[in-house]
Amino acid sequence: MRPGRAQPLSSCAALVGLSAGFFAALSVGLPAPAAAEGWNAARFDPPAKVETATDAEGREITCTFYPDLVIRESDTGTPEPGDAALIPIRGGPPVVCRAAPGASARRLETGGQRFIGRADGFLVFEDASTNGTMPFAVIDAGTGRSLFTDTTTYDGIDSFAAEGATLRLGFRRGVQGACSIPQGGAACWARIVREDKIPAPVAALPAPAKACAQAYRAGKAPKDTPSIVSFPVRLVWTGSLAVEADGPVRCLPTP
User: Fold this and answer.
1) CA gap 69, 92 in Å, rounded
2) Tens of pLDDT along 52-92?
3) Confidence (pTM)
4) Number of domains the chain is built from
């Protein structure tokens, strides 16, 4: 079962940087933090207002208003929100949150995600529920086009800057493995590298066996629990995506 998340507004050595208490919390499936560290409002454009309403079908609707657009989310009271809508408002009629989106609305492919915030021409959504890794999506605020997706861990975002058509992100990419490194060792690491297309500089590193052993021991996780690995990523969007990745590789058991 995937624990729900609270609504936001939302290099070769292996290391373990989280406390034993944190891993213990993971092991019993407690809810994740409200948003990955670094997704904070100070890094996003402040909305003019946020409204919550109930539509004709009884669904909770959340509308986030900016001077030029509204992000309308549906089913925000559930762990699986529906696709959001981007509604341009310059020159158009006022947006009534409870009403169905009009003809000018653009459907965003964000089912299961919640709106985190806007930074200049970029909209950021993050999965509303998680199982150890936190997928997010970046969308063009002008067109509603999906620009790229990625996945963080509880370490979150450590740098974020948007200027014009350029977005820069620094974070630890989280990868959910299908096997356990404490149990399978180098063979499991090779499988994660192969199946999850780990970047070459990270794939060349040895299996994070020591980091995994410490994390599993701290969290009292069974040895056969699938492993989540993470590593630093620096990403730049300028109309296309440039990504740099390296170590150290961290490890934790799947909650």
Assistant:
1) 10
2) 999 888 899 999 999 999 999 999 888 899 999 999 987 76
3) 0.81
4) 1
